[in-house]
Q: What sequence folds into this?
């Protein structure tokens, strides 16, 4: 078995300036690095004219979560998932809810060391159906995520990416080829929002969403964190919902979640529940079948309805499933209409528990 190591050869780069620098081709930032210099994500580095990933085999922690926490409502509801992340991020969101991990430049924060095989064995041992690459964006540790996903597939463990989707085409193909599901953060729906609050651009994210949905077998759900006065206007919500309906179709679930003051935006108020309810109604009026509210207790906003007869087929309160009526094929018991997603035998739901796991030896 391969031993965990922090320095690992990186992929998706090429030499420039006659070898004086290298350019990272992983994401649209296209960082150009001198020897010893790190990219904007901080974890990808030019070492002797070669790209290295400094966080391979090292994690900020492992935890068993409910799948609904990712959030994924149509991917084996009620199942548990082994979640982990590393450090660093290729976006610079001023409202980051996991800033202590994603913005960290302290490699000592990565306390748990584990090979892909050890992660897979832990998922099997804890009965987790899936492994989630999350907490910070798995794009920046794509090599580690891909290696782990391949190990998981050998044992029948599913793979889930929780990401902002800011990635170039070549790396995107390889990354999503080994993912079974993804929740992509669609931060807002204007390039101005992405530039000013995320240090990025909207177009590459939309390209990633279209690619996942149309070119892969990866199940896709979207999340938009609604920030008061920043991305929650009726106009923007209508434009976002209309794009999803037109480009992805009405069956891709969309989650509107509540912002709480954090990182560099501690001066804003939390998102009022009424804003989430309004956003959900706008999206449903646009024709989307599955629209949810998150980070709040909202039975109505957490319930999955049959797209034909509108019967409630999965009732949720936050991460708790209160009622589950779908059959193993994911069909409504009343009209036998298929609900979009990935389903199987529904057993005792994992619930809202959170179980920390230590893999370090």
A:
């Amino acid at each position: 078995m391969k031993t965990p190591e922090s320095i690992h050869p990186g992929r998706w780069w090429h030499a420039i300036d006659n070898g004086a620098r290298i350019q990272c081709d992983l994401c649209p930032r296209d960082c150009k690095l001198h020897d010893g210099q790190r990219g904007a994500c901080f974890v990808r580095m030019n070492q002797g004219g070669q790209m290295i990933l400094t966080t391979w085999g090292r994690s900020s922690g492992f935890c068993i979560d409910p799948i609904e926490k990712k959030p994924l409502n149509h991917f084996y509801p009620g199942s548990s998932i082994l979640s982990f992340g590393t450090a660093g991020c290729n976006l610079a969101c001023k409202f980051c809810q996991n800033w202590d991990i994603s913005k960290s430049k302290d490699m000592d924060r990565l306390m748990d060391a584990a090979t892909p095989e050890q992660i897979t064995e832990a998922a099997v041992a804890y009965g987790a159906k899936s492994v989630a690459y999350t907490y910070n964006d798995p794009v920046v540790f794509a090599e580690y995520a891909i290696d782990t996903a391949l190990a998981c597939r050998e044992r029948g463990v599913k793979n889930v990416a929780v990401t902002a989707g800011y990635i170039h085409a070549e790396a995107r193909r390889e990354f999503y080829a080994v993912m079974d599901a993804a929740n992509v953060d669609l931060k807002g729906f204007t390039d101005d929002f992405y530039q000013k609050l995320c240090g990025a651009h909207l177009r590459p994210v939309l390209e990633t969403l279209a690619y996942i949905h149309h070119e892969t077998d990866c199940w896709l759900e979207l999340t938009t964190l609604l920030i008061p006065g920043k991305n929650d206007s009726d106009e923007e919500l209508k434009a976002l919902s209309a794009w999803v309906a037109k480009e992805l179709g009405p069956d891709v679930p969309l989650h509107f979640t509540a912002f709480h003051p954090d990182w560099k935006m501690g001066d804003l108020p939390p998102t009022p529940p009424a804003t989430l309810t309004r956003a959900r109604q706008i999206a449903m009026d646009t024709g989307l079948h599955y629209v949810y509210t998150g980070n709040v207790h909202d039975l109505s906003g957490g319930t999955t309805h049959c797209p034909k007869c509108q019967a409630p087929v999965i009732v949720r309160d936050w991460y708790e499933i209160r009622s589950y009526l779908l059959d193993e094929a994911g069909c409504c018991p009343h009209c036998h209409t298929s609900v979009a997603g990935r389903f199987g035998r529904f057993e005792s739901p994992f619930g809202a528990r959170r179980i920390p796991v230590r893999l370090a030896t």
About this structure: The mean pLDDT is 93. The CA atoms of residues 128 and 329 lie 21 Å apart.
